[in-house]
Every structure is written in C-alpha cells, then in structure tokens.
Amino acid sequence: MANIDDLFKKPLLPSKRKSEPLRDASTLYKSAKVDANGDVSSNRAIAVEDDFDEQDEVGPELPPDFNPDEDIPDDEEGRFFGGGISRDTAGALDFVEKLDQGDPGPEKIDSAWLRRLAVNFEKRISKNAELRAKFENEPQKFMASEADLDADIKSLSILSEHPDLYEEFASLGCVGSLVSLLSHENTDIAIDAIEILGELTDEDVEAEQEEWDFLVTAMVDGDVIALLSQNLARLDEDNDADRAGVYHVMSVLENLASQLPVAEKIGQDTDMIAWLKNRIQKKEKPVTQNKQFAAEILAILVQSSTENRQRLIEKDMVDVLLQLLSVYRKVDPEKDSDEEEYVENLFNCLTCLVDEDEGKSKFIDAEGVELAQIMLREGKMSKSRALRVLNHSVCGKGGAPVCERLVNAAVLSTIFGMFMKKQDHRSIEHLLGIFSSLLRLLPGDSSSRIRTLAKFMEKDYEKIKKLIKLRREYASKVSAVDQVIDQERKPMSSDEQELMASEWLSRRLDAGLFCLQNIDVILAWLVAEDDGAKAKIKSLLLEQDEDLGVIKATLQEQMNDLDETSADELDTREMLGTLLQFL
C-alpha cells in the first residue's frame, strides 16, 4: 500500500514561488513509445504491399517547370492557402463558439468567488477530519480526501494577487481554518498551509497596510506563532520535504516580524527562541540556508524591540554569539555564501544586544572586549564588524565599565593605530564614537582616563592634527549641503519647511554631520582637559581663519536638537552645556 506521506512530497529547495517540476527526457520518450499495456506504439500506418512498382507514375504528367522544393508564399488575399478570413475574425468566431459550447472563460476573482471557495474549503477540512477519525487505521479510505484538501490549500495562492479580499477572507473564518491546518497530522498538509501563509504575507504582495493587518491579526488570533513553533519541533531536516517546511516556517516568521507588535509576540514564545538559539549553533559544513535564516530571524527580532533584546540576553545569547563568532577571528567565510550572511547576522545580533546595559555586562563577562581586540588586529571581514560592536558597547551610561576594560585590555593602541591609517567612512564614524565615549565616561582622575588623554597628546599631537583635518573635510561637505537646503527653504512656507525637516536632516547626516559633531565634542573635551591641547587646537583652526567659535556653534546646534523628555538626552544636554563653558 502506498505511504500517505508520499502523496505530498516537496522539492528539495523551497522558494517563495513554486517552479514547475523538471521532467526526465528519457521518461517522456518512453511514455510516447509504450502504451498502457506495455506494447510498443507506432504512429506509422501498417504497410500494405501494392502490386505496382514504387517508381511507376500514375496520373497526368507534372508540368516541366514544377519544383517540389520551391518555397511558394501564400497569396496576399489568403484565398487558396488561408482560411479566407482575417486573424481577428477567426478569434471572434472562436470566442462565439466557446460561448455556444458553454465555456464561461476565466473565472472572476471577487467576493462571490471567495464565498464559494470558503464554503468548499471548509467542507474539505470537515470531510478529511471526519474520515480520518472514522478510519484512523485505514489510511487508504481518507487518502483521496487528503489529496483534495491539499489541492484546495494550494489553490489559495491566487489570493496573494488579490489582497483586497484579505479582509473578507479573514471575516469568513478561512484564515483561522488555514492556520488550524498547521496542526494537521500529515506534516505535508501542514507545510502546504505554512507555505500559503508565507505567500499571502510576502513583502512583494501589493497589499495596503490595513489589508495586511486584517490578515495577520486573524493569523495571530488563530495562535499561528505557537503552531509554527510546534512545527519547527516536529519537522526533521534530514528529510527533504521537512527541510523545505522549516524554511517556509521561517519565511512566515520573517514576514510577521516586520511589524513591531507581532515581532514582540514571537520573542515571547520561549520554545521558538530556544529552537532558533539551538539552530544557529548546529554544526554544519557548509552552513546551510536554514541555519543562516535562523540567524537572520534572531537579528530581526533583536532589532525590533528592547523587550526582545532583554529576553535573549537572559538566555545567555551574548556568550553564545561570541563563541560562534570566535571561529571567524582570523578566518573569513567564503565570499557571497550563506555562511558569510550567517556571520553578518551574528554580528548584527551582538551589536543590538550590547546596546543594552545588561548586554554590556554580559559582553565584559564573556571576554568580548578581548575577542574584539584580536579581530581588530588579525581579522579581515571581522575587523570592521568588531569595531562596530565595540562602539555600541561603550556608548550610554552603562558603557563606563566597558571603557575601563577596553583601556585595561590594551585596546587603546590598536584603535588609535587604526585611526592614524586610512579608513572608510563607517570605520571613522565608529572610532570617533569610541573616543567620544571614552572621554565622556571614564572617571576624571582615573588612570584609564589619563592614559586615554595621553594618546591624544603623544607624538606632537598627531591625533589632534588628524581630527582637525577630518573636521575640515566633514565641515566642507555639510556646508555644501546646507547651502542647497537654504536655497530650497527660501520659497517654502513654514508648514512646507516642517514637512521637509526630516529629509534635510537625513541629507546632512549623509554628508557627515554626525562625524562632525563627534569630532567637535572630542575637541571640546581636549580643550577642557589640557592647556597644551587647547593651544594646539586654536593654532590649527587659525590656519583656516577659524577659532573655537566654530566648535561652539556645532555643540550649540546639537544641544538645541536634543529631546528634553529623554533621560539619556538630558544627560547629553548637561555634558554639552558644561563643554560650552570651556569654549
């Protein structure tokens, strides 16, 4: 007897849209040559022996100028070689003939169609459930209903082209019914349902936000997250169909996590988080698509909310990530591979986690600063990522202990050495961020602060010279953008200017405003801390007919843009106010 699971097998590699199965050429050939009884078929007629010679001619003699190989074109009127009617007329006649034969043409996808589909879909589910319960140990008696149900599930794919029907699809209860099939005894039925949910929620579907919300709300109400988690637990990736099913589960999670409330609900599912955590640690060579996808889902979740970050920190995710990344401290993953994307997602996760104070503490305990030091010295791909992680780990109030560890681990010489070499814009931004945090957070009379200040003063203030050089470059770029913005602002009303404010800020940031602000904060700290540094900064600014007033203007603008309701920004405002007094 055929195994019921064999009726619903999937292709090895999943995709958002299904492709037609490949067919073996030899199979097609054999099917054309052998009939149902196994007899060889032939298209040739049975040969009949004639009682005259093949070369005997019968009928009138052909004209002498006849050439059978000559290509004779149809006459323009189509009277002899055509049908005597135009192509358009023939098409019209075919259409009339189809109407006469009762062919209604393509079915209209509308509310009436959806209601018919809903009734039929519910009947299929009920019939299959009834037959399964009645003939539990006789699968041959419910196999046909299972095949019908499978076909109906797949037919729902067309709804992704009609998102205007999502609201009614949900109100008819079909979304809940589709979600319920994730718990079907036949995993192939469950996988089909998961794949359809992925197609309906795919980012490529041209659905309005309201339409998407109706669909997803119904899915969440149907407990889709818990059911997806249960399927991850029961699917075996050693099986091709199940491996594809795992991919489809994560596709749905990726789609759902694009909205913050749903992303937080996913993060609350402890079984889901445990599965993702275990999946990224599974040893594989090479790294598979599903392992990479699991890391990507985690990265999406931790980027979405503080709550998700806190939950993962509590699960010792910082330590897990550092262990996984330690493999790449000196060795790079293969370029443009799943492994490279996997490593990128691990770094993204770690960067988000060390933004939290608890994450910073875990980062210190797991010797994250020391690992970052190795990557900065010997890494290739990992170097710039480790620098970004360090920058995020030292920022904010909770960054003070990380700053202390950074100095004690002899990372100062490494990062200042990098600063004096040519770096890309992103690396410069992270280095400036680290310098700014060190000067802001290290205690006033501590040895670590003194060592940091000494780095700026050594070798005839070469780091300060580099800071002033960078300041000129960024100030020039920001000034050019400001001039364009000023021209755009002149003819605008105050309301129009308010609408453009965010875009203008974005353009200024792209030009290097953030780096310029960080440089001026660093220079202001140095002016406040050391008279020799103050004199050097003033002399370097004077070379361009500038004075400390340009630094003061930057800090004042930065302070004016701060949100007074935020605790962190209130601290920043207080710091900037203090620095302004020294300028």
Automatic annotation (TrEMBL):
Q: Which domain of life is it from?
A: Eukaryota
Among Pfam families, the record links this protein to: CTNNBL
| Range of residues in the leader sequence | none
Q: What GO cellular-component annotations does this UniProt entry give?
A: spliceosomal complex
Give residue ranges for domain Beta-catenin-like protein 1 N-terminal.
88-194
Write out the entry's keywords from A to Z.
Coiled coil, Nucleus, Phosphoprotein, Repeat
Region Disordered: what ranges?
1-27, 49-71
Composition-biased stretches, type Acidic residues, lie in 49-59
Q: Where in the cell is it found?
A: Nucleus
InterPro entries in alphabetical order: ARM-like, ARM-type_fold, CTNNBL1, CTNNBL1_N
Q: What is this protein called?
A: DUF1716 domain-containing protein
- Please give the organism: Ajellomyces capsulatus (strain H88)
